[in-house]
Amino acid sequence: MTEQGTLLSVRNLRTEFKSQRGPVRVVDGVSFDVGHGKIVGLVGESGSGKSMTALSLMGLVPSPPGTISADSVLLDGTDLTRLTADQMRRKRGRDISMVFQEPMTALNPVKTMIQQVGEPLSIHTDLSRRAIREKVLHMFETVGIPEPAARLKAYPHELSGGLRQRAMIAMGLICEPKLLIADEPTTALDVTTQAQILRLMVALRDRVGTAIVMITHDLGIIAEMCDEVNVMYAGQIVEQASVFDLFDRPSHPYTRGLLASIPKATEKRGGNRLNSIPGVVPNLAKLPGGCRFHPRCGDAMPICKIKPPELTELGNGHKVRCWLHDKQGGTP
Ligand code: ADP
Ligand code: MG
Q1: What does 216-243 look like in DSSP terms, one character per residue?
Q2: 3 CA distance to ligand 1 middle (Å)
């Protein structure tokens, strides 16, 4: 990716929580780029640090107990890590916004749809109430909410899960942000609605040009919509590649495990289906020595138990954190 094509550039993002055993690093040195208008995936099992990465980028990790640091988080040239809380509040909803997994918890149950979907406009613009209503109506049409005018006065509980998620996406896009972070936006939905929402997001990227960070535990979703992908494990990126390269030459044993667990077209989506990889994501407070994945890895070598591998480039921007591919000498 060329430098001028880069919208978001994250370098060495680290997020820690205090615990009784000392600090626990839930995001540990994460670096990735998102080009203008690109869809970039963050994929990994539950607990791998995807949501914490997203919340850290949004400046939404509660602090204390959390602390975020990074070498830089450049959004269109502005380093978000250098903004005050007030300046960051002005970025959120306008330049960068987020869609959460469960809209029922993210939406306010006692506010109508027009009140909350229009809220970013009342915060960030001088538009009149009438102009805001027009914009929300238009955005409801854009995200495919049927009878949009009738839905403006609805409360969240009066909408189906699919419509609530569409409304959340409308809220995320209402100020036409440069970047939308979608955190498992379809996990709670049925297969048909999920497919509709994913198609909608790709269409919005094509029409509005919003870049998307797509967070999912499902490599099938990555294959359908992303340009590039970052595979996360235990707070770190373990593989980074274009979607083509990742599926053509998956290089981390963890990625291969995830790929082996993609359901066939005939199977139903949903639930945790990553059962082809034995074991679970380690407790971050008690990480194994060496490579964090070695206790679950079928290819582990002696060095994997001792020394943590670095993220190394295989070529064409394809990077992997694994001794099998490290020319510095993984092989004994
Ligand atoms: P994912 O979204 O990939 O499922 P998360 O980002 O939610 O994973 O979680 C990453 C890690 O951060 C997990 O180990 C989780 O237990 C830990 N974590 C999440 N929230 C908190 C918190 N408030 N305090 C301490 N640790 C947390
Ligand atoms: Mg999550």
Answers
A1: ES-HHHHHHH-SEEEEEETTEEEEEEEH
A2: 32
The token pair that represents 194 in the structure block? 């999920």
Q: Is the pLDDT of residue 284 over 70?
A: yes
Both tokens assigned to 80: 């978000």
Q: From CA 232, how far away is CA 243, in angstroms rounded? A: 15
26 C-alpha to ligand 1 centroid (Å): 6
Report the nearest-CA residue for atom 14 of ligand 1: 47
DSSP state of 325: G
pLDDT, position 225: 95
Question: Which residue among 19, 24, 26 has the greatest number of ligand 1 atoms within 8 angstroms of its CB, and so is best to mutate?
Answer: 26
Q: Of all residues in the chain, what percent carry a pLDDT higher than 90?
A: 74
Residue 263 DSSP class: P
Segments of the chain assigned E as strands: 6-19, 22-35, 39-43, 66-69, 72-75, 78-79, 96-99, 179-183, 211-216, 228-233, 236-242, 312-315, 318-320
The dihedral of CA 190, 191, 196, 200: what is its sign? positive
Mean pLDDT of the chain: 90
Q: Give the pLDDT confidence of 178-220 residue by residue, as tens digits.
A: 999 999 998 878 888 888 889 989 998 998 889 999 999 999 9
Contacts of 88 (CB under 8 A, 6+ apart): 59, 80
The CB of 49 under 6 Å from ligand 1? The reply is yes
Q: Considering only CA atoms, which of 97, 50, 3 is closest in space to residue 221?
A: 50
Ligand 2: centre distance to CA 328 (Å): 34
Q: At what angle do helices 191-208 and 161-173 cross, to 10 degrees?
A: 20
Ligand 2 centre to CA of 187 (Å) is: 10
